[in-house]
Amino acid sequence: MPSMASAAASSSSLAAIRHPHFLPAKHVSPPQPLTHPLPPRRPPRAQLVRGAASTPRTSQAELRPDSKNASALSAELRRLARAGRLPSALSLLDHLSHRGVPATASAFAALLSACRSLRHARQVHAHLRVHGLDTNEFLLARLVELYLALGAADDARAVLDAMPQRGATAYSWNALLHGHVRRGRGEAAGPVADAFVEMRAAGADANEYTYGCVLKSISGSSRPSMAMATATHATLIKNAFAGAPWMLMTGLMDVYFKCGKVKLAVRVFEEMPERDVVAWGAAIAGFAHKGMKREALEHFRWMVEDGVDVNCVVLTSIVPVIGELRARNLGREIHGFVVKKFGDRKDVAKVQAGLVDMYCKCGDMLSGRRVFYSSKTRNAVSWTALMSGYASNGRPDQALRCIAWMQQEGIRPDLIAVGTVLPVCTKLKAFKEGKQIHAFALRRWFLPNVSLCTSLITMYGSCDCLEYSHRVFHDMDKKTVQAWTALVDAYLKNGDPLTAVDLFRSMLLTNRRPDAVAITRMLSACCDIGALKLGKEVHGHVLKLRMEPLPLVAAELVNMYGTCGDLNAAQRVFNRTESKGSLTCTSIIKAFGINQKHKEALNLFAWMLSNKFVPTKATFDVVLRICDAAGLHDEALGIFSSMVQEYKLEASQENFDCIIRLLTGAGRISEAQRFADLKSTLFNLPTPSLDSEQQ
């Protein structure tokens, strides 16, 4: 059985290193002995400069494998490991082992840091025993952490159990905890808690790094446990914060923010004896993460007033807040501060990308482009910020070009860049470019990413390629509710509501809990096919899931019942809705209008205005259509005037056509002609002559 396990591990590691991420930049052969006794001629200086960037430096230790200079050979091992040439380093290490030349602990530390596969980690582990370093606590702790990071928990446990005096020191246990944190990816809290309990049972004393790993495991969890947070807090108070109150209180504050307990986080922040830039940055990032933008800006101002130097980490947290608040003038002040203090430092690239995003969110594309093109270190983050800015400011064509421009600069789009450009392809219905991005994502092993697959389903659906949408959905390993909803929506938009209904039933059979978006899509399908019975079935799911109080769901229910002719049911749903708003009011007005209850619909519109609900453009479109159907020209003129003058909404061509039809039907030709002239001016259309049409 051990041989089978090792063979499986070796095959899995071989598969792993075939991934482009683990392949070396170029093949490096093992050191070979010289065939000529004389050294080669020294090339000219210019040739040396040109070859320096393309050819790795060859050391004397590589050229003379018969050397027994342990320090020089260990230095060469460190150099190869740091250069990412791990196969060459392992070949040299094999040679040293055969000749009995010992390698230093620092060389093994560099090799462990360079390992990216389980096969290489096990090779280095075997050499540790050969070189007599299998009792070095530092190297064994690094090995434990490496095994856990590579997913080999059994190997890590075997190393830890074999360590001498494992219960007397916290160093090896901290490596175990840190390895669980690195490997956990959102689910490390349980293993870390178990290891912490075992550590205390073994008699090892926890220090600040131990508690730091515990706090990181809680805050990094997908569902942070408040019980674990309070228990850790109590333990820290009992142990006087392990002599490091600033560091651990900052981590504890971050945990409370992640648990949604803002008041407790603020209390921990206020109890800090001293607040450094890390503590201030954690507080600002916590407020920003919880959407408390004003509080984040206030703490940033207090930080500056307290005399704490602002670093790039704090700026990357506060700049997006300014963009979401559309505070362009404050953003310009931050921009000036960045230019004055940081200049062209390399670590300011993320801040510059944030400034690009901030200006774009404020609608100032000119300043955003100026910051972008003045940056000397453009990367995938800054290109994605510019791409997102073009897309959000009505320039999807430019956003699509950015994905090609960034590759012309030698920058490969990352997962976020691909996820940003796919909705642009959806909006432009760019089928060819969407397929190219799909192929790129496959080559870069971004798939099967759930978010990207969902975007691909939506993109192919908008391009009328339902076969491709279904194929992407079928190839998904984990079919989420969002993916099901995207496929249902694709069939609805392509005029196939019956298939959409069948897909919704299939989703329910997989025990997936539909969200509000999926429910509204199904109710929309019921409207399209007039399926009242199916709509009532969906309403039953809404009641079961307790979604009826949601305004979006309630409005769609009212719309479904009104479209299917059950006005009483629509009225009952509207009356039960506690949080009424413009969305639900528009739906009930539309329901009465569809069922030829024009006066009641206009009375509901008047009731909506009297209760201080702000009508939207969709509300005015519905009311004007009702006036058109009822022939109420005077009411339509008043509503049109209120829409344009009082609520400052732009009238569409459909709104103008409605008024023109009503006035023409009432014999008010001159007024109708004025509206026709205004429509032609606004939309660059030829002016029709209503007098000739009337004749």
Helix content estimate: over 70%
Structural class: mainly alpha
- Beta percentage is under 5%
What gap, in angstroms, lies between the N and C termini? 97 Å
Query: Residue ranges: pLDDT <50 for 5 or more in a row?
Result: 1-63
Query: Compute the gyration radius: what is it?
Result: 33 Å
Shape designation: elongated
Q: Tell me the number of strands.
A: 0
Mean pLDDT: 81
- How is the main sheet built? none
Please tally the helical runs, counting DSSP H or I stretches of 4 or more residues.
Answer: 40
Tell me the layout of helices and strands.
Blueprint: H1 2-17, H2 45-54, H3 60-63, H4 70-82, H5 86-99, H6 105-114, H7 118-130, H8 137-149, H9 153-162, H10 171-184, H11 189-201, H12 208-219, H13 226-238, H14 245-258, H15 262-270, H16 277-289, H17 293-305, H18 312-324, H19 328-341, H20 349-361, H21 365-374, H22 380-392, H23 396-408, H24 415-428, H25 431-443, H26 450-462, H27 466-474, H28 481-493, H29 497-509, H30 516-529, H31 532-544, H32 551-563, H33 567-576, H34 582-594, H35 598-610, H36 617-630, H37 633-646, H38 653-665, H39 669-683, H40 690-694
Helix pairs in contact: 4-5, 4-6, 5-7, 6-8, 8-9, 8-10, 10-11, 10-12, 11-12, 12-13, 12-14, 13-14, 14-15, 14-16, 15-16, 16-17, 16-18, 17-18, 18-19, 18-20, 19-20, 20-21, 20-22, 21-22, 22-23, 22-24, 23-24, 24-25, 24-26, 26-27, 26-28, 27-28, 28-29, 28-30, 29-30, 30-31, 30-32, 31-32, 32-33, 32-34, ...
